[in-house]
What does this fold into?
Amino acid sequence: MVKKILVVDDNKDITDLVQAILVLPAYSCIAVNSGQEGLDLLKKQDFDLVLLDLAMPGMSGLDVLSTLSEEARTDNIVIFTASPEYNEVDLEKLKEWHGKIERINKPFTDEELISLVEKHLK
It folds into this structure.
């Protein structure tokens, strides 16, 4: 069965890169470039994994997570961010909302991303 992945990041170069890395037969990868677009998709479809940027204009990744915690649409989320603003304390707070949250820092290698995705989609 093909696993569905949603990538939410305001930087189109990042979403294009992630989609290029995850072009594997086992994955279907959809990318959007705003928190609102990601939330709208999550309300309509189920995804096996969400790769979510935190620092986005308009609706941030934290806003998306807050809404998801109220609606419980998915609990398999990997946060990816280049912002040093979010530390381990913040990550622990996010885990209170969603049990399976993990973080990968940008920039990441192809191998790091694939390994993390495989870990979450076993």
